[in-house]
């Protein structure tokens, strides 16, 4: 099974349905067994839906990068 880090490396492409069937299968297997990634995936899908329905905007990297880094750090700590 893939790790959370490997999942996150493909996560954006997975959400946009831009992964091969083989990669999708591996990602979905991981999701079926990892509660943290399930929550992240569900939350991300809901967030994308809210943003696209209300008009899109782009966060500057100075805002989005620290958020992503904190999420990744928390997930690494939880899985250690």
Task: Produce the secondary structure layout.
Blueprint lengths: L3 H12 L5 H13 L1 H20 L6 H18 L2
Q: What does the average pLDDT come to?
A: 87
Distance between the termini: 16 Å
Say how many strands there are: 0
Fraction in beta strands: under 5%
Kindly describe this structure.
By secondary structure, the protein is mainly alpha-helical. It has 4 helices and no strands. It has helices at 4-15, 21-33, 35-54, 61-78. The chain is globular, with a radius of gyration of 13 Å.
Question: What's the gist of this structure?
Answer:
The chain is mainly α and 80 residues long. It contains four helices and no strands.
List keywords for this structure.
single chain, 80 residues, mainly alpha
